[in-house]
Amino acid sequence: MSNGAGSKIHAQVEMLLPWYVNGTLSEAGYKRVQAHLDICDECRDGVLWCASMRAAAQQEGPVPILPATRAAHIIDGDRERDVRQVQWSSWQRWSVAAAFGLVALFGLYSGGPGVVTDASNQQFHAASTSGRVETVDYVLLLRFADAVSVSDRASIVEDLGVGHSMLNGDQAMIKIIVRLPPKSLHELEQYAAAIQSRHEIVSAEIIALQLPVR
Amino acid sequence: MKVHLDHTKAKDDRRERRLLERIADGDREAFDELFKEYHPRLFRFVFRMTASYQTSDEIVNDILLTVWQSARAFRGASKVSTWIFGIAYRQSLSRLRKRKNKTVPISDDIADAENLHQRVEQEDWLQRGILLLPPKQLLTVMLVYYLGLTCEETAAATGSPVNSVKTRMFHARRKLRVYLSKSAGHQSPEDGRE
Ligand SMILES: [Zn+2]
C-alpha cells in the first residue's frame, strides 16, 4: 500500500473488517473489501483477528437458564422475586463456570404446589432431560425456623445424606449442593419433599446449576 | 440469500413497530409479546458480559422497564431492535462502569505476529481479553460480534457517529492484540481511556 490512493483505501477497508466478518456489509461494501484483501496482507491478517474475536464473543459457555421473570413482573415493579432474596455474593466463581437458573421448589414438576409454568423453566427441563448434560448440580437453599439452633442446623444438614456437600451457610440460610444425573429429577422431587416435611425447615428452594452443554 | 434475510428482517421490524405502538398505548399483551422475544436475547447478551446472574437479571429488567415506559418516545428513525439494543447499551454501560477495575494498564505497542497467531488459537484468552476491554469497547464489540449489528445500527444503538464506532472497534482489536502478546494472566487490555 505504498501509493496515496492505495493507502486511503486500506485505511477505509481496515475499519470495515468487523462488519465484513459479521456479514452485514452491503454487497458493494463486501466487494470493495474483497478486492482489497486480494492485495493486502495486513487486512487479511485483520480479517483473521476479527473472525477470532467474533468466535470468542459468540463462544457460549453454559447457557444460562433464564430467570422466571414475566412481563407483568416488570410492569408492576414486582422486584420481590425469589432470585432477589438469595445471597449471591459467594457464588461469583460459579457464575463464570456455569449458569444459574432459579426454579421454585416443585416448579419443575407439573401438578405440584407453586408450579412455575414459564417457558424458561420448560427450557431448563428440556435441557436437563435431553441427555446433553451428564449431571446437573442443584443448590438447595434451606431456611430454618428461628428456634433451631446452629448446631441443630448442622446436624440436620448432615442427616440429609451422602452425596450432598454443604457449601456454606449463615444463621438463616444454608446452601447445599446436590449433584444428580439429569434423568433423575424425580429423585430430587422425593428428596425435596422429604426435607420440606421436616418441621425445622421453613422453606426449601432449589436452584438449578446447569453444567456446560456440549 | 441476503435479500431474503433483509426481507424477513423488515417484516419483523414492521411487526415490532406495531407492537411498540400498542405498548405506547399501555397494551400489556403487546408488551408480553415483545418481552418473550427480547428477554432471552437480552439476558444472554448481558450475561455474557457480566457473568453474574443477578446483575444480568437486574439490568435486563431495567432495560425492559424502560421499553415499557418509553415506547411513546420511539420516533421510528431506527429499527425497533436497534432502539432496544440502544437502551441495553446505555443501561449496561452505566453498570459496567461501576465494576471494579483490578487490572493493570498496558501500552499500545504491537507485538510479534507469529506469537500472536498462536495465542489467537487460544480462544479462551481472547474471550477473557474481550471481557476486560473498557466498557464502551466491550459493549460495542458485543453489539457487532454477538448480536451482529450493522455498522449503522451499531452507531444508532450507541448514539455515536459511524466513524467513532469504526475507530472504537479498531482500538478494541488493537488492544486485544497487545493483550494477547503480553504474558498470561497479569495484564489486561483495559487502559481506562473510554
Ligand atoms: Zn489493507
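DSSP finds nine helices and five strands in chain A.
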